[in-house]
Amino acid sequence: MASNLLVLLVLVASSAFLKADGKLSPDYYSCKCPKASSIVEAEVRAAIDHETRIGASLLRLHFHDCFVNGCDASILLDDTGSFVGEKTAGPNNNSARGFDVVDDIKAKLEKTCPGVVSCADILALAARDSTVYLGGPSWKVGLGRRDSLTANRTAANTFLPSPTFNLSALVSSFAVQGLSFKNMVALSGSHTIGRARCISFRARIYTESSIDSSFAKSRQRKCPASGDDNNIAPLDIRTSTHFDIQYYKNLLNKRGLLHSDQELYNGTSADSLVKKYSTDTTVFFRDFARAMVKMGKIKPLTGREGEIRINCRKVNS
Ligand code: HEM
Ligand SMILES: *[C@@H]1O[C@H](CO)[C@@H](O)[C@H](O)[C@H]1NC(C)=O
Ligand SMILES: *[C@@H]1O[C@H](CO)[C@@H](O)[C@H](O)[C@H]1NC(C)=O
Ligand SMILES: *[C@@H]1O[C@H](CO)[C@@H](O)[C@H](O)[C@H]1NC(C)=O
Ligand SMILES: *[C@@H]1O[C@H](CO)[C@@H](O)[C@H](O)[C@H]1NC(C)=O
User: Which residues fall in a coiled-coil region (predicted)?
Assistant: First the structure.
């Protein structure tokens, strides 16, 4: 009897400990809003069926959210009188997209379970669902994030990595977030989908030497030496709508579109991991999924912190 009680006490105490430690849980909404994940998935699929690229844009939104004061949906806030939002920070301005899709998903969720599902969790689920629908790996998304009450454009400019970064700068910008070298190389594999603007890769295609010359020439056709900054090109020259290992194969052929991409295969300690991923889908998918879970855990607001926004673009009044 007494020992049963002891076992019970230990179980209760350890589960409380696990909860405090783990913070996010994949079944966070299973009672509060059992349809939450299926609603997000259906909307993401419909959005991708409408425009394939939006899957890439949604994956990137979660990254750009998490790297700026944690995964708290701060990127979704419009400017207000009291703060300037992150949407016009250098890495986001004329570039971050998918905000309308997030609004649509949120509207559907508000109809089914008003005030329950956070915008930060929508971004995490949409990133996973996009990856899966485009042929990539799946993972369990920890849930229970809450939404920030503010945003910070300076922080977005400070913490989001630039395509001009060299390898050590890339490593540092991930290390600041608690992400490893391997996490960085795996997460960069996101560039197997989606597009970039001319302004993001102009210097590379006109001035660099570790670039395949026919690749450089073909990219120059729609990205002149000056002007047309917003013309876009696929990050993966071969299969930019499929989540696969082609990105790494491109790097081996000096066909990385961004300077930061090619930095991962340029005669350094990163080469061996890129080579590995370029031939092994299973290992890349495993490492990518693990890294996404880790990225999704960056400084979430939980418990009574922040709020559940009703409209992802603005703080509740
Ligand atoms: C390693 C450092 C990284 C740098 C320097 C970087 C930089 C960039 C740049 C410059 C673009 C093109 C933006 C434009 O020209 O409009 C881009 C696109 C993209 N990035 Fe990254 N990125 C990095 C890591 C990541 C990570 C970790 C993810 C996701 C986990 C990611 C996902 C994407 C996706 C999916 C796109 C295409 C978006 C679209 O087509 O709308 N990137 N990135
Ligand atoms: C964002 O882009 C717009 C349109 O190109 C430009 O007018 C504006 O100055 C940019 N904002 C910032 C903060 O750079
Ligand atoms: C915004 O972020 C910058 C860079 O991290 C920081 O120095 C600044 O204090 C932040 N501003 C506010 C109001 O938190
Ligand atoms: C990488 O870039 C940083 C910051 O621009 C610079 O200080 C450093 O010397 C560069 N490292 C290498 C190896 O080029
Ligand atoms: C690759 O290495 C060369 C020689 O060290 C360097 O000039 C270049 O900036 C590096 N990165 C890329 C993407 O070419």
Answer: none
The pLDDT score that the predictor gives to residue 22 is 63
Ligand 5 pocket check for 210: Cβ under 6 Å: yes
Q: What share of residues in the chain are helix, strand, coil (percent, to 5)?
A: 50, 5, 45
Give the domain CATH number at 100. 1.10.520.10
Please check whether residues 77 and 130 belong to one and the same domain: yes
Name the pTM for this structure: 0.95
Ligand nearest to the CA of residue 233, numbered in listed order = 1
Q: Are residues 133 and 179 in the same domain?
A: no
User: In this structure, are 218 and 254 located in the same domain?
Assistant: yes
Which residues constitute the domain of residue 185? 167-292
Q: How many Å apart are CA 131 and CA 248, to the nearest integer?
A: 17
Q: Are residues 129 and 171 in the same domain?
A: no
Q: What are the distances in angstroms from CA 32 to CA 62, 73, 131, 255?
A: 23, 20, 26, 47
Q: Of the listed 50, 62, 64, 242, which one is catalytic? A: 64
Q: What's the domain count of the chain?
A: 2
Ligand 4, atom 10: nearest CA belongs to which residue? 166
242 is catalytic: no
pLDDT at 128 over 50: yes
